[in-house]
Amino acid sequence: MINPFTDEYFMKKALQEAEMAFEKDEIPVGAIIVIDNKIIARGHNLTEMLNDVTAHAEMQAITAAANFLGGKYLIGCTLYVTLEPCQMCAGALYWSQISKIVFGASDEHRGFEKMGTQLHPKTTVVRGVLADEASELMKRFFAEKRK
Amino acid sequence: MINPFTDEYFMKKALQEAEMAFEKDEIPVGAIIVIDNKIIARGHNLTEMLNDVTAHAEMQAITAAANFLGGKYLIGCTLYVTLEPCQMCAGALYWSQISKIVFGASDEHRGFEKMGTQLHPKTTVVRGVLADEASELMKRFFAEKRK
After folding, report:
1. What ipTM did this prediction achieve?
2. Known binder of ligand: residue B109?
């Protein structure tokens, strides 16, 4: 039997969140958190609407997932996020001890890998899942902004 | 005339926040944000109470200050925090473009300086203000925890 719950399957859900950010005129980044193939948290970038640099998609998803689980550690959870996390979000993920991070497009300027942010030693990382879709959405956003 | 608004003056206010965390059985870290010698935001660590790794004193103060100012950038502001910020908080401070960070005790294991987190190029840092008081509070907290 084919497993429908692939990384691509869940990244599509994160992309839907990114599209919700786009529609709100926010830089289109979306995130979901999954445990045992179940989505327990969703978030999309709301930094403009909330006037708050901390309102990244990942931060909201981390808070929501911990609220769902009733504990602050996200052991056994996977974060799917359309763009590579920044220093702040990677730092939050470090504290959460999340088991797996899957991201779409790389952020070569402000991504945590370029910036050297440390994750928890037990966290694994998968890169580039539906990266083209995530990049395309970002490019479309900034192209419209320049109009 | 003597200027009463020294870094020590404001750090004492941050220490009061740290004491509030202590009383709630939280790791005692406190923060305030100041603009033009006026305190516009306060926060203390609430990670246990909120079950949320993102609920550091600095994160709450950043969100509160932006809310007060009606904008997400903290240009012209100073953060006073009793303990050196972590990667997450330093990453948030990077996005905020805050003008100055004053911290008390260094965190040699998980502080942003050891971890290599980048601040905004316009942010200046002052270290070690009332560091002994901040360290003493932390030591007392962990000593009581071990009992």
Report:
1. 0.96
2. no
